[in-house]
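User: Sequence in, structure out. Go.
Assistant: Echoing your sequence, followed by the structure tokens.
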Amino acid sequence: MTLYDRIGGTYVRTRVADPRLAARIRAALGDDVATVVNVGAGTGSYEPADLDVTAVEPSAVMIAQRPVGSAPVVQAAAERLPFADGSFDAAMAVWTVHHWSRPAAGLRELRRVARRRVVVATWDPETRAGFWLAEYLPEIWLRDTARFPSLSLYAECLGALRVEPLPVPADCTDGFSGAFWARPERYLDRDVQEGISTLAAVDPAALERGLDRLRADLDSGAWHARHGGLLELDELDLGYRILSAG
């Protein structure tokens, strides 16, 4: 059973591809590609409609939630892709490498099956980008810095990298960890919590304590006193990046 077989049942309710992030990912793939493999594809978010996409996803729960008409999907793991060398113009992986059991092996597989380009959307732990949620749940910072690969590993496995910031819109529709930086009350929603793998992995007692503190600070105005200035921003750089190689 994969992680998302356990936590992914409500994924489609809170993890809707944000069109602004999708446009940046599509631009990184380039205009010289026609075929792409989406590895760790989940329910199909960010798969470009104008390209011939093949999806790869290990979780049966996630595969079952892919919409009718979405790209054909192969149930497999990133570390052992069932395709010949150079089978696709490009390979993509969005919010997924940190879940792979052997990231280096999976990244080398992306490079192997892609003739022209590899594009990855991820979080760079070396940015040390501050995020107020860690004040309430320091466990998420410790967990994410441990499991997200460094950019040096990407460069080692994929070759020379182009690194682009991926700032998060204030009204982001894709409910990943940093999506609700300007809507703190959303982290109190159970569906939101279950759609964020980092939160789902926090000890339930610690999660409850941290969210109780957040709820109290929202009620008292303490959160707004410390972080209310963020609400004037349209987007925020929280350390998310688009990496492209080739």
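User: And one key feature?
Assistant: The two ends are 34 Å apart (CA to CA).
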